[in-house]
Write a sequence for this structure.
């Protein structure tokens, strides 16, 4: 679950339903080496009583350039030894308009450039999920879940550009009609065998994920220069299919009080077939353009094994783990083959300064890998305007990250963390000049040689009075970038902050004020201007707390994004007024119902989550 559906589910939980919440800031060896950041595990109390629980949510987001509707529903039921959960949600966007103004500053004084691009997107997204779990007896349980995701989008854009070199102006106008669809189907099956009452178990998970996407695009460009004009018409058809199969066998063994062992093996197979055909209109005939078309056949095999040991004695506790992964990839079209084996250790050590653990010091280390998303590998040519496009990079290498931090925890909720994330081959988007026409720029992902982030993070929750909660988070980062081994080291200082004030008002009203801000950001040879936003949300429950009504506004002062791309020949500054990033008014209705005892949802665990995330659209 993501987005509004996840928030609705979390709000439906009551304290008596939750047995334990475990925060794992750095994922251990039992998780995939590509797992980003940490993990939050919510363990619910197991109910043996039959019952039905559900939730229906309808939300809408409205702005001058955006209309979006977000319905969702979920149902959890227990009938004897059977647990059933089902969910469906959709995001329907009949209107999403954006504008982008760009200007270039050339190194020569006789060259000027300005452009205006307008985008109008319409999209429909829907997903449905059905899961069934069966407790065969007190020791064995089985589960299965299927999920379908479908999306269709139409993106029409118009651009007008003026390029002046000396006294010779070139005016161009372009129209682009892009239609994209994708369908994803996933299935997973679980088997759990309980070994004792202390949490020891054997677990087998088998997953399949398949995705098919298609794109049909038409482009029309008219150029006027030196009293003459020319027009260009071309089209593209793209198809991609992805198949991912994983199997994961693991053992969790309780040894004695305060000590446990986890071990497991996992295999993942990925097959990707991606192709695109470009054709130009010559007279009345369509002729293939091999310079833009491509075929990509990519396969990936990953075999991993891990072991993790945890123990605690007195005020000390620690977790140590090691994961090994052998990876074989092949790009059969460009004859690119890679074989590599990596070790991913992790260590977590904590010390409590008193028996109540109101003051603790926690140190953590892990080594991780981030493999490129599949859309980043695909060399699909996506036209953004007459003078810019976007394209993937099939030569990308995975990113390796060494993460370490030290956290002081006070009164269970105040935290101060210092640490670093050291990246090798970090994947960043670069802006480059087209080799055939230097006035055309394009964006493509590439690997940085090194990029290190040294940070300090502070979390400060306060409750000055019973009817008010304040939470503030601050992060300061020193960013060191070396784009290539021979490049000079670039240093930047970044700041992030967010704060939420929650007020509990009379008559059951709940009001929130949210602030979020970031300093100037740096990625490759591009920059994102500082941005600060303020939001407001009001909630009220009715019908014995079954109906939740929410209304609010995001980005009250309508702050948009500004970007800068730095090239040797020119600098491009762009102001992007995106409908979904501006001021948005939101309203939602959430109705929760139940029959019999309230049911704690029995989760069907999926082992391929990190691989599935690589399938998601950008």
């Amino acid at each position: 679950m993501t987005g509004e559906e996840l928030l609705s589910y979390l709000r439906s939980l009551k304290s008596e339903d939750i047995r334990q919440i475990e925060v794992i800031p750095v994922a251990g060896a039992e998780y995939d080496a590509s797992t980003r950041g940490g993990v939050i595990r919510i363990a619910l109390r197991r109910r043996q009583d039959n019952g039905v629980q559900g939730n229906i949510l309808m939300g809408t987001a409205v702005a001058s350039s955006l209309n979006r509707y977000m319905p969702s529903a979920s149902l959890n039921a227990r009938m004897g030894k059977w647990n059933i959960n089902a969910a469906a949600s959709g995001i329907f966007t009949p209107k999403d308009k954006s504008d982008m103004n760009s200007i270039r500053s050339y190194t020569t004084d006789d060259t000027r450039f300005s452009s205006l691009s307008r985008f109008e997107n319409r999209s429909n997204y829907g997903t449905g999920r059905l899961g069934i779990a069966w407790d065969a007896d007190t020791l064995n349980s089985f589960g299965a879940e299927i999920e379908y995701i479908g999306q269709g989008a139409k993106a029409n854009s118009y651009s007008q550009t003026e390029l002046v070199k000396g006294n010779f102006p070139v005016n161009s106008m372009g129209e682009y009609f892009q239609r994209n669809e994708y369908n994803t189907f996933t299935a997973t099956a679980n088997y759990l065998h309980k070994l004792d009452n202390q949490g020891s178990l054997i677990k087998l998970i088998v997953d399949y994920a398949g995705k098919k996407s298609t794109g049909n695009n038409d482009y029309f460009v008219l150029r006027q220069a030196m009293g003459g004009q020319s027009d260009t018409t071309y089209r593209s058809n793209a198809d991609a299919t992805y198949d991912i199969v994983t199997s994961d066998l693991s053992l969790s063994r309780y040894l004695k009080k305060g000590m446990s062992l986890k071990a497991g093996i996992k295999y993942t197979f990925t097959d990707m077939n991606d192709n695109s055909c470009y054709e130009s209109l010559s007279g009345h005939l369509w002729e293939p353009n091999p310079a833009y078309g491509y075929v990509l056949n990519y396969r990936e095999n990953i075999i991993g094994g891990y072991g993790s040991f945890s123990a605690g004695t007195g005020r000390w506790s620690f977790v140590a783990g090691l994961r090994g992964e052998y990876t074989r990839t092949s790009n059969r079209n460009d004859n690119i083959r890679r074989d590599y084996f990596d070790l991913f250790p992790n260590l977590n050590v904590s010390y409590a300064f008193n028996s109540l653990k109101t003051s603790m010091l926690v140190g953590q280390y892990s080594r991780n890998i981030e493999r490129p998303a599949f859309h980043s590998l695909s060399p699909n040519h996506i036209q953004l305007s007459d003078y810019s496009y976007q394209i993937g990079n099939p030569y990308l290498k995975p990113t390796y990250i060494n993460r370490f931090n030290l956290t002081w925890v006070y009164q269970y909720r105040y935290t101060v963390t210092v640490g670093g994330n050291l990246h090798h081959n970090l994947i960043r988007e670069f802006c480059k000049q087209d080799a055939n026409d230097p006035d055309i720029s394009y964006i493509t992902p590439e690997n940085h040689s090194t990029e290190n982030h040294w940070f300090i993070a502070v979390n400060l929750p306060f409750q000055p009075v019973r009817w008010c909660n304040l939470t503030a988070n601050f992060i300061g980062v020193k960013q060191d970038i070396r784009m290539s081994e021979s490049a000079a080291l670039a240093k930047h200082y970044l700041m992030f902050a967010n704060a939420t004030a929650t007020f509990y008002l009379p008559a059951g009203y709940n009001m929130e004020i949210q602030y979020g801000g970031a300093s100037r950001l740096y990625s490759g040879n591009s920059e994102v201007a500082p941005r600060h936003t303020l939001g407001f949300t009001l909630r009220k429950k009715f019908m014995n707390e079954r109906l939740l009504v929410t209304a609010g506004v995001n980005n009250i002062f309508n702050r948009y994004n500004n970007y800068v791309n730095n090239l040797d020949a020119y600098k491009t500054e762009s102001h992007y007024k995106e409908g979904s990033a501006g001021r948005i008014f939101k309203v939602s209705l959430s109705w929760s119902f139940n029959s019999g005892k309230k049911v704690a949802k029995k989760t069907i665990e999926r082992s391929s989550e990190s691989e599935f995330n690589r399938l998601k659209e950008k």
